[in-house]
Amino acid sequence: MISSIINIALSGLRAAQIALNEISNNIANAENPKYCRRSPVFRENSPIRYSSLLLGHGVKVTDIKREYNKFFATQWQKELGLLGDYEVKKQVLGQIETIFNEADGGLSNALTEFWSAWEDLSYDPTSMANREALINKTQVLIENFHQIAERLHQLHKEINGEIEATIADINKLTQQIAGLNKHIKEAGGDVNSLYDERDSLIRELSEKIDITVFEEDKEVEIFLDGCPLVEGDKAFELKVNGDQIIWNSDVEIDITSRIKKGELGAYLRLKNEIIPEYIEKLDNLAYHLVNKVNEQHKQGYGLDNSHNISFFIDLSSPEGAARDIELNSNILDSPNKIAASSAPDEPSNNENALAILGLKDTSIPELNDTTFEEFYSCLIAKVGNDAKEASSFFEQQKLLVDEIKDKYDSISGVSLDEEAVNFLKFQYMYDASARLISITDEMIKTLINLGA
After folding, report:
1. Whole-number pLDDT of residue 1
2. pLDDT of 328-353, one tens digit each?
3. What is the distance between the alpha carbons of residues 86 and 390, in angstroms, rounded to a whole number?
4. DSSP class of residue 368?
5. Deepest in the core among 51, 308, 333, 434, taking most CB within 10 A?
6. Are 451 and 48 in contact (CB under 8 A)?
7. How far is it, in rounded angstroms, from Cα 279 to Cα 37?
8. Cβ contacts of residue 274 below 8 Å, gap of 6+?
9. pLDDT, the chain, mean
10. pLDDT of residue 49
């Protein structure tokens, strides 16, 4: 019986050592975002028979449990897709808002100054100073068009690079997840650290692209709207082909329209819809401004009786108009050719200058029956509203994700206070088991002395 007490005490020592080791590991990984808290699972050793009795025979640690709540983990992973989507749009639309930069005047102010220069010229059509001022104000307007258009096109080009980089990240993550599937299935013993790593990679992947995850027999399968990205230890690559995202298997499939959210989804909408819409509106403004001013300018006469001359270089289509708008070199080289007069040999005639100035308040059918300034104001308002909406959605989604993560962490995260209590508990268990061995040793010595 005394030997049984020693075995029971030894089992308690071993179990306490294992528990203390896991508690120490929890504390060491308290700041590790990938880590799930571990808990030892205790089980009574098989009892031993003594006469007609079954006597307890100590304890053992049968497993190291990974504290993991699948429901909260799944919710967290799903909501990360929208978070990644809104974060990208918030960042890029914030850049676009800066590109238009109306706080410092920008194109709106340049357009106002352009009309003011025509008004000044109408007061004194013979003034060379007024003509030079009109040319200068026009050049400022043109430069504003050029800068905004060039920056939008540059941003559009950069997003192409971001799409390629995101695709590369997605492919790397799916390969790593497939590799972990293999390691987890083939490994024996404790694979909790591999589960932690795989879950972290899945969350990272979720931020980049909208996925559905299934788990079976220690492996995960990952799908994008029915197209597998990971099946067992096999990963399927994505690639960019022009404006298409191609799922690469035995047969290549265009899956661009299937990508609804995540960082990649946001980049695709910015590239294919949002930025092209801004560029199109800016081009339309430039194109119709050129056309309307040229149309009226050709009807007038310069101080040198020049006639039928375009003020701007004529444009053939709206596409690229904001980058292509330029002052006619004839006007630039000879301000006398600015057609302020409505008739030849009438240098003081200002009727054509007034007609061009009248375009300022004219509703243009091609611009949704708005004036030039109203059309541009609507564009600026849209840019601002889109940026504000993206920022608001991001903040709301971040709060939701943080709330779900807090619930997940309440189960899987490491609480240093809780671990300190557990450490003391298992330390007492260890000390008590050691004391039991000591007491048993004294009992044995007493029995020996009695025998003597």
Report:
1. 61
2. 999 999 999 999 999 999 999 999 99
3. 6
4. T
5. 434
6. no
7. 51
8. 89, 93, 386
9. 92
10. 74
Q: What HEC string does 223-278 produce?
A: EECCEEEEECCEECEEEEECCEEEEECCCCEECHHHCCCHHHHHHHHHHHHHHHHH
Sign of CA dihedral 313, 317, 320, 322: positive
If phi > 0 it is left, if psi is from -120 to 50 it is alpha, else beta; for residue 118 that is: alpha
Per the structure block, which two tokens stand in for 182? Answer: 């293999």
pLDDT < 50 stretches in the chain? none
pLDDT value, residue 266: 96
Specify whether the CB–CB gap between 126 and 364 falls below 8 A: no
Q: H or E element: which one contains 66?
A: strand 59-66
Give me the residue label for tokens 């983990």.
73
Angle 54-59-61 from CA coordinates, rounded to 5°? 140
Which phi and psi (to 5°) does residue 372 adopt? Answer: -60, -45
SS3 content of the chain, % helix, strand, coil (to 5): 65, 15, 20
Task: Name residue 59's beta-bridge partners.
Answer: 44
Every domain of the chain and the residues it spans: 2-67+420-451, 70-274+348-364+375-410
Q: Is the pTM of this model over 0.90?
A: no
Give burial (CB, 10 Å; 0-12/13-18/19+) of 214.
Answer: exposed
Which candidate, 145, 151, 154, 159, places its Cα nearest to that of 99? 151
Give the list of residues 6+ apart from residue 396 with CB closer than 8 angstroms, or none: none
For every residue of 301-363, which 3-state class applies, written as one string?
Answer: ECCCCCECCCCECCCCCCCCHHHHCCECHHHHHCHHHCCCECCCCCCCCCHHHHHHHHHHHCC
Question: If you search the block for the tokens 């909260």, which residue do you land on?
Answer: 72
* pLDDT score recorded for residue 451: 63
